[in-house]
Amino acid sequence: MSRTRAEMIEETRVKLLAAARKAFRDSGYAAASMDELTAAAGLTRGALYHHFGDKQGLLAAVAAELDQEMDQRLQRISDAAPDAWTALRERCRAWLRMATEPEIQRIALQDARAVLGPASEPAQQPCITSLTTLLQSLMDEGQVRAAEPQALARLINGALMDGAFWIAAAPDDGERLEQALRALDLLLDGLRQR
Which pTM value belongs to this model? Predict the structure, then answer.
């Protein structure tokens, strides 16, 4: 059975993303060679340029793929939690823990930020939307003090992002992660209705 053109295009794109993800994770964006990357994928530089425009476009696609996976992981944590408070707390803690994972640390928190700049509004929206939903649920239940849920979600998201950058920039001894997790508990506890 022969593959369609769309299937072949998608296969090429997937191969390039996988090779780039490995190269960026192992060597970093600056040191990743496009010739070695395309050779590892069994493709040409022309395929890379056709699909992603350039190396920066490829990094943007890899970062977007990684970001989507992170959002899915956080959503699974929320879905598995026994209640909304646990969902909020555990997804925030998981986000900070992800900052210690080498692939996320290097690609999403270091190279993408340095090369592509701050995360775009559309890239942040899934996380902000799910946080807003959780916070609204907690407010409706009377567990969290009333506030504009989207504003609160944006503030929490910003704190988590900055905390993750801070953790990712540290030596890998786990001290910053533990400090951030303790501080997060204090921050979240301040939201609770007494």
Answer: 0.89
DSSP type of residue 120:
P
According to DSSP, residue 100 is labeled: T
- What confidence tens digit (pLDDT) does each residue in 47-100 have? 889 999 999 999 999 999 999 999 999 999 999 999 999 999 999 999 999 999
- What is the DSSP secondary structure assignment for residue 107, as one 8-state letter? I
> Using a CB cutoff of 8 Å and minimum separation of 24, what contacts does 119-125 make?
119/67, 119/161, 123/64, 123/67, 124/157
Backbone angles phi, psi at 192, to 5 degrees: -70, 145
Q: Which residue has the tokens 């600056």?
A: 30
Q: Which residues contact 184 (CB under 8 A, 6 or more apart)?
A: 92, 93, 96, 159, 160, 163
User: What length is written for the chain?
Assistant: 194
* Burial class of residue 170 (count of CB atoms within 10 Å of its CB; 0-12, 13-18, 19+): middle
DSSP one-letter code for 110: I
